[in-house]
Design a protein that fits this description.
single chain, alpha/beta, eight-stranded parallel beta barrel, two-stranded antiparallel sheet
């Protein structure tokens, strides 16, 4: 009975959208090609698997103590596979360097090689998953307040070497999967209180980046990510948005837009059309800032929806990569994965279902009230019926039915940890 209702609802939605010139079958094919890069660090609160791991630092933190966080690489992989089974479509996996398969061996970050990620490469091939990667400059005795921007040449070179090795690993992943691995570079570098050496630190960071990117890596893509501030680094951030936007535009790098990394009154969505004329590709890290970069689980809020509208309206679907970047330890972590991923998909779906050609022509003709009217009417169109059909075609639970699957997994697997 439920399957019949879903099908009937979709047929009605299909007809409704056809009336305004939108082909839902074409949209469903586009959505099938919308691949999220799921972030491994949601499953364990950004702890990783280093034997010598210490407390989290570097201007970030995960809050909450919901039971059942992944404690090792096997549990993390199992949790990721469970989450993927409840998210329609085919998605990538984004790894931080601290999630290497170190097998009980102490491996400092300037010593890491692809050897410690070979089991990830094999796992990804077994489960038909493409990998992305990140260097990890936080939570380390040498991270302090400055890493790549550190005036101490020994510490700076330590992090330069770490990041170079991460690029080697990312390139090896890309070669193994025959698809470029996207590697994001974010460092927390900054000052807690008033400082005077801003230009010095930024020149040092530029020097480090120039050294890091000197080697060409054909099977990986470099992203650079800015930020407003981090906890304990509130007064100054070396790698600001202006710094990285200029560096990316000049040097042909991908710019990462993290939705939590801006001032509360700024619109990350507006950045898309502002930088695309100068930068070939963008990487998104989609999360939900609540008053600050708090990395709450992505939901269908207005800022997220506007971000995806802007990408589609800019005709930039083939120039943007989509990653998630929230880590909430206060709720069921599998649930967080599924809620956030589905929310991002729904935002993309609604953007794809917008009658862009019609609205654009009306705007250019000066028909302002008609533009506003059509945009408002789209909010009540039956997009949810299209998403339900997408779930059916991908053989995943429809609507809130995924909750029962998560509860079963929690009872049978997570509760025993």
């Amino acid at each position: 009975m439920k399957a019949e209702l879903i099908k009937k609802a979709y047929e009605v939605a299909k007809a409704r959208y056809a009336e305004i010139g939108v082909d839902t079958e074409k949209v469903l094919k586009q959505l099938q090609n919308f691949h999220l890069s799921l972030h491994c660090w949601q499953a364990d609160d950004v702890k990783g698997f280093e034997v010598q791991a210490g407390a989290m630092s570097g201007g970030i933190q995960s809050t909450g103590d919901f039971p059942g966080a992944a404690r090792n690489i096997d549990e993390l992989r199992a949790d990721i596979l469970k989450a993927k089974s409840l998210i329609p479509g085919k998605h990538r996996l984004n790894l931080h360097e601290i999630y290497g398969d170190f097998k009980g061996k102490v491996v400092d970050r300037d010593e890491v090689t692809v050897e410690y990620f070979q089991s990830w490469i094999d796992w990804a091939k077994e489960y038909d998953t493409l990998l992305d990667f990140n260097s990890s400059s936080f939570s380390h005795p040498k991270s302090g307040n400055l890493s790549l921007a550190n005036p101490d040449e020994g510490i700076r070179q330590f992090w330069v070497e770490h990041t170079k090795r991460c690029r080697d690993i990312a390139n090896a992943m890309g070669e193994a999967q025959n698809d470029p691995c996207i590697m994001n570079l974010w460092v927390h570098d900054g000052c807690k209180d008033v400082s005077v050496n801003h230009a010095l630190y930024r020149n040092i960071l530029k020097k480090s980046l120039d050294e890091i990117f000197e080697k060409k890596q054909p099977m990986m893509k470099d992203c650079i990510e800015g930020k407003v501030f981090g906890i304990g680094l509130e007064s100054f951030t070396v790698g600001s948005h202006d710094f990285y936007t200029a560096y990316a535009a000049k040097n042909g790098q991908i710019l990462t837009i993290d939705t939590g990394h801006y001032h509360p009154t700024e619109s990350p969505a507006d950045k898309v059309s502002a930088v695309l004329p100068f930068i070939s590709e963008l990487m998104l890290h989609v999360s939900r800032p609540v008053r600050w970069d708090s990395d709450h689980v992505t939901i269908m809020d207005d800022p997220t929806q506007e971000l995806f509208f802007e990408i589609v309206r800019a005709n930039a679907l083939d120039r943007v990569h989509y990653g998630l970047d929230f880590f909430d330890g206060s709720i069921n972590r599998i649930g967080a994965y599924v809620i956030g991923s589905r929310a991002a998909q729904k935002c993309m779906l609604r953007a794809l279902l917008e009658p862009r050609k019609m609205i654009s022509e009306l705007e250019l003709a000066g028909e302002g009230y008609k533009v506003l009217a059509l945009i408002e009417e789209q909010k009540a169109m039956p997009w949810q019926a299209v998403y339900d059909e997408f779930c059916v075609r991908n053989d995943v639970p429809v609507g809130q039915d995924f909750i029962a699957d998560i509860e079963k997994y929690t009872s049978e697997v997570i509760s025993k940890r």
